[in-house]
Amino acid sequence: MERKTKETDIRVYLNLDGSGKCSASTGVGFFDHMLEGFARHGLFDLEVDCRGDLHVDCHHSIEDVGIALGQAFKKAVGDKSGIRRYGSCTLPMDETLILCAVDLSGRPFYASDVVLPSPKIGDMESEMLREFFYALSYSAEINLHFVHYRGENSHHIAEACFKSIAKALAHAVCFDSRVDGVWSTKGAL
Question: Cβ contacts of residue 14 below 8 Å, gap of 6+?
């Protein structure tokens, strides 16, 4: 996928049947680290190249990468025939425990009670976590929910979110030989 605006120029490559390889270059070091964890723990191959207006702040870059990655994900799952559709992961990371649940329903929705105590994590504003996942969920047209059971370290909380969504999505996109067509009583997603 490619996305070019006056604020960003982004190229995203996503292979859902990968091995966890990642090359992320967004100009936001902590965000690159999170994308690497996402790819590794989902066993997705991911390449992200983003040139954004970082002289303003990281908002446009991170939000637009969410949009482009969501579009790539939507394209990669195609008509969703034969896949499990739902996925969830409760992921511990030191003192942190995060639940992520997804539904590849075609109906976008995002809900989260995740709280990051610090205003920044490295060079990324903490509020960008919500902006990224909101953009991803709406452009991928998925239901995405996070529940923050415990955790005080902002780095651990954010990383647990990226790893848990990777694992939830990896489960949701798996083929199941028992699923005939799409997993819906309507016959379409």
Answer: 1, 44, 45, 46, 69, 72, 73, 76
| Fold that domain 2-172 belongs to in CATH | Ribosomal Protein S5; domain 2 (3.30.230)
Helix residue ranges, H only, 13-151: 29-42, 59-77, 128-140
- Which two tokens mark 169? 């999505």
Render pLDDT for 153-171 as a digit per residue (tens, 0 to 9): 999 999 999 999 999 999 9
Q: Taking a C-beta distance cutoff of 8 angstroms, is the pair 136, 71 a contact?
A: no
CA atoms within 13 A on the CB side of 113: 8
Domain ranges of the chain: 2-172
pLDDT of 138 > 90? The answer is: yes
pLDDT single digits (tens) 80-99: 999 999 999 999 999 999 99
User: Mean pLDDT, to the nearest integer, of 41-69?
Assistant: 97
CB-neighbour burial class of residue 177 (10 A; exposed 0-12, middle 13-18, buried 19+): exposed
